From TrEMBL:
Gene3D superfamilies: NADP-dependent oxidoreductase domain (3.20.20.100). SUPFAM superfamilies: NAD(P)-linked oxidoreductase. Keywords: Oxidoreductase. PANTHER family: NAD(P)-LINKED OXIDOREDUCTASE SUPERFAMILY PROTEIN, NADH-SPECIFIC METHYLGLYOXAL REDUCTASE-RELATED. This is Alcohol dehydrogenase. GO terms for molecular function: oxidoreductase activity. The keyword Chaperone does not apply. It comes from the Bacteria. It comes from Vibrio fortis. Pfam families: Aldo_ket_red. Residues 15-308 form the NADP-dependent oxidoreductase domain. InterPro entries: AKR, AKR_Detox_Biosynth, NAD(P)_OxRdtase_dom_sf, NADP_OxRdtase_dom. One of its GO terms (cellular component) is cytosol.
Length: 339
């Protein structure tokens, strides 16, 4: 396993991060694994050097934190793990059980730690940018949580670059702790964050962790999987010709190297030096091995061009632009793939 410092912090994390959205309760979504089903995957990841674990209170409405941390507390060493969780999405029918108000953040960190049976979380993350709460209120609450010892660091996820700039500005003005990690969606089929967000994070010394390296499954070229047939986000975000053409290119490169398409898609993400860590949401230990192999895979210039030639600009994918896509036209193949 490779380890890197997360942004300008002194925290070292594995380049593979265990994504856990698929662990918790099947009552939430049909493709979720219960604790018994989740344990072999978690154990396999830890046995292969993963120390970075990604959670969110919203996953299975809290059951995800319980399931994953029951396993971690049983088989792992807490002081060797970097555990994150997120706050923001609505957890129940209480009008205040959502967003990034001080009320909800303070209630949520205590509820998460109780479910996790832990004294602290390593990185406490905003799940999105709450446009309805003053950013000063949100960041002051997160600063207080770090000062209290309930979190060691803070992070953010899925927002516009100007929104992250507001967060950094208010933290600088008040001497509050700043985010050390930006978690964003990034893969061969969605690269809009290369334009502003990733360069801004590099400039500000914020680590970049990436989720959905397989574009919610389409880059595996297995559209009949349970996830692809039941996760409506897949169709909402990647149901266009360019995405399917990119998926075909991934398959072509995989065929050349005699490996699975998933490994190629993951290797492309890991080839980007600005990516600190890549989330892996595996359904089996064998699927996790694909990401381990991707760490060692070297893609040449012909491979990279084939994987990138179909990409054209699209609308930003976040909470504010769901479903907004523009027509995209691909470039023609060249080099070895033009034959």
């Amino acid at each position: 396993m490779e380890y890197v410092q997360l942004g300008n912090s002194g925290l070292k994390v594995s380049r593979l991060c265990l994504g856990t959205m698929n662990m918790g309760s099947k009552e939430w979504k049909p493709w979720i694994f219960n604790e018994k089903e989740s344990e072999p995957i978690i154990r396999h990841a830890i046995d292969h050097g993963v120390n970075f674990i990604d959670l969110a209170d919203f996953y299975s409405y809290g059951a995800g934190e319980e399931v994953v941390c029951n396993v971690l507390n049983r088989i792992g060493q807490r002081d060797k793990l970097i555990v994150t969780t997120k706050v923001g999405y609505q957890m129940n029918d209480d009008i205040n059980a959502q967003g990034h108000s001080r009320q909800h953040i303070m209630n949520s960190i205590d509820a998460s730690l109780k479910r996790m049976k832990m004294d602290y979380v390593d990185i406490y993350m905003l799940h999105f940018f709450d446009v309805n709460t003053p950013i000063e209120e949100t960041m002051c609450a997160l600063n207080d949580i770090v000062r209290s010892g309930k979190a060691r660091y803070i992070g953010v996820s899925t927002m516009y670059t100007w929104q992250l700039a507001k967060i950094i500005q208010v933290c600088d003005q008040n001497g509050w702790v700043k985010p050390i990690n930006m978690q964003l969606q990034y893969n061969c089929a969605y690269r809009e964050e290369e334009r502003e967000m990733i360069p801004y994070c590099q400039d500000q010394g914020i680590g970049v962790s990436v989720f959905s390296p397989l574009a919610r499954g389409i880059l595996t070229n297995d559209m009949q999987s349970n996830r692809n047939k039941t996760d409506f986000f897949t169709a909402e975000m990647y149901n266009d010709k360019a995405s399917f053409d990119i998926s075909t290119s991934v398959a072509r490169v995989a065929q050349r190297h005699n490996v699975a398409p998933a490994q190629v898609a993951q290797a492309w993400v890991l080839s980007k030096q600005y990516v600190s860590s890549m989330l892996v949401g595996a359904d089996t230990p064998e699927q996790f091995n694909s990401a381990l192999a991707a760490l060692e895979m070297n893609l040449d210039q012909d491979d990279i061009f084939e994987l990138e030639r179909n990409y054209t600009p699209c609308d930003i994918i976040n909470d504010y632009t769901a479903g907004n896509r523009i027509p995209r036209e691909a470039r023609l193949p060249k080099g070895i793939y033009a034959k």
